[in-house]
Amino acid sequence: QVQLVESGGGLVQAGGSLSLSCEASGVTFSRYVMGWFRQGPGKEREFVAGITASGGSTKYADSVKGRFTISRDNAKNTVYLQMNALKPEDTAVYYCAASRWGVLGTMTDNYAMDYWGKGTLVTVSS
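^ thats the sequence. predicted structure below, dont judge the formating
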């Protein structure tokens, strides 16, 4: 009954911006560490960004640091990913994921999150 639904993906030119949203249901959202992962064509899954349950701490992959911002609104059961200065290599399906007991500092590409959304496609053209 847990659902994570991403939205906001689309086609953007290099250098442009896009904002993704993920709305959760069926969980006590404020207790979950949330993360964004992505998987490009022919590539392995990659950790993008994570945020603690309270929103007090964040973590980013080196490849997106300074360009992407993760945030959350627990009153809306929603986590966001603001993506700026997009590059063609950012093209991927972006997945929202939740972890009840996740440790943000150890969150990596293959981290075992508890729940996953179906993903939203982001395509960055050159």
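The two ends are 40 Å apart (CA to CA).
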